[in-house]
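sry for the spam today, last one i promise. C-alpha cells for design, 317 residues
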C-alpha cells in the first residue's frame, strides 16, 4: 500500500520502520516542526524526521494542518492509508478523509482506558498492572474511534515510563504490521469503544513531579517510576534539590512512629523513609545538576542518619 505516516517522538519510529520493512511505500512523513530539545535547547529534528530521512522518505513539517495547500500536496501523493503514531496534534476531519482507506492510529493503551496525551505515564501513576497497544480508526474526537486490534501486556512492578514506552513502541509496530496486512486483504472488523469505560490521560506537567510523603508508599513509588524521564519526582534532602529515581515500597511498622519523609533506617544500598502508609526504600537518586547515583555512592559523600528528613518541593507548572 501507499502509506502516509504521521508521527513525532521516538515511540513512533518502530512503526515507521515496520511499514517500510513490510514493503509498503511510505509516500511522505508528516512530523512536528524542529524545536529546541534537551538541556542545551538546541533546535533538532524529531526522532521520526531523522528516521524518515534515513529511509529516504520525503518529510513535511507543517505549522497548520488545515492548510489547503498541504491537503493538495498530500492528495497528489495518492495514499491508500494514513498511519498516525503520537503525532501530537488533533487532525482535522478534512485530513482524515484524504487516504482511500482512511487513517489508523497506534495508541499506547488498551482503549478505552487512557485516551489522551500521556497514557503510559498515567497507567503507571494509577498503579495499573496491565496496559497494551490498540490500533484504532482515527476520528475527529480524541482517541474515540473504533478498534481494529489490541494487544495486552503486563506492567512490571518496577518498570518506568521510559522502559514501558520502549516496549509498547515495539509491540505497537508489530501489531500495526499485522493489521496492515489484514487491511491489504480486505475489510477488518472494527469494534466500537465502550463509552462507560473511558478514562483520560491528561498531559504530564512539571507540577506532577511534586509529591507529599503523607501519601502511601505505593503511590510515591508509582510516581517515581511513572514520571521518568520527565519531570521526575523532586524533593529536598540536606537542603539540596534531589530527584528520586528508584524505589521499593516496604511494609514496615516502624514507619508508623515517624513523621512522613523521615529517614527511618540507613542501609548500605537504600534509605528507608516513612510515608503516610508504610515506608519506601530509596535506592537511586540525583542531586540537581549532578549525574544519577546509587544510594551507596551518595552516602560516600553525603552522610545521612536516621531522623534526617526529605522535604516536599513546590513545582511550577
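last one done:
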Amino acid at each position: 500500500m501507499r502509506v502516509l505516516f504521521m508521527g513525532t517522538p521516538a515511540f513512533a519510529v518502530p512503526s515507521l520502520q515496520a511499514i517500510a520493512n513490510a514493503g509498503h511505500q511510505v509516500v511522505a512523513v508528516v512530523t512536528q516542526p524542529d524545536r529546541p530539545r534537551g538541556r542545551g535547547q538546541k533546535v533538532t529534528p524529531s526522532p521520526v524526521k531523522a528516521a524518515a530521512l534515513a529511509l529516504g522518505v520525503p518529510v513535511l513539517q507543517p505549522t497548520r494542518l488545515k492548510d489547503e495547500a498541504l491537503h493538495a500536496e498530500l492528495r497528489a501523493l495518492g495514499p491508500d492509508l494514513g498511519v498516525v503514531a503520537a503525532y501530537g496534534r488533533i487532525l482535522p476531519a478534512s485530513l482524515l478523509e484524504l487516504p482511500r482507506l482512511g487513517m489508523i492510529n497506534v495508541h499506547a493503551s488498551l482503549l478505552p482506558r487512557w485516551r489522551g496525551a500521556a497514557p503510559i505515564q498515567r497507567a503507571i501513576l494509577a498503579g495499573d498492572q496491565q496496559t497494551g497497544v490498540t490500533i484504532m480508526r482515527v476520528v475527529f474526537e480524541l482517541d474515540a474511534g473504533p478498534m481494529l486490534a489490541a494487544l495486552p501486556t503486563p506492567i512490571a512492578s518496577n518498570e518506568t515510563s521510559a522502559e514501558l514506552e520502549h516496549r509498547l513502541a515495539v509491540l505497537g509496530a508489530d501489531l500495526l504490521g499485522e493489521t496492515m496486512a489484514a487491511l491489504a486483504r480486505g475489510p477488518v472488523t472494527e469494534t466500537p469503544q465502550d463509552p462507560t469505560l473511558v478514562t483520560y490521560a491528561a498531559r504530564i506537567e512539571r507540577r506532577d513531579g511534586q509529591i507529599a510523603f503523607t501519601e502511601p508508599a505505593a503511590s510515591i513509588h508509582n510516581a517515581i517510576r511513572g514520571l521518568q524521564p520527565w519531570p521526575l519526582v523532586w524533593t529536598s534532602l540536606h537542603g539540596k534539590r534531589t530527584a528520586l529515581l528508584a524505589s521499593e515500597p516496604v511494609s514496615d511498622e516502624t514507619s508508623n512512629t515517624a513523621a512522613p519523609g523521615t529517614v527511618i533506617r540507613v542501609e548500605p544500598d537504600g534509605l528507608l523513609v516513612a510515608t503516610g502508609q508504610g515506608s519506601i526504600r530509596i535506592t537511586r537518586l540525583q542531586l540537581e545538576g549532578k549525574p544519577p547515583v546509587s544510594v551507596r555512592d551518595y552516602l560516600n559523600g553525603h552522610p545521612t542518619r536516621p531522623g534526617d528528613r526529605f522535604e516536599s518541593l513546590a513545582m511550577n507548572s
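The mean pLDDT is 94. ok im logging off now
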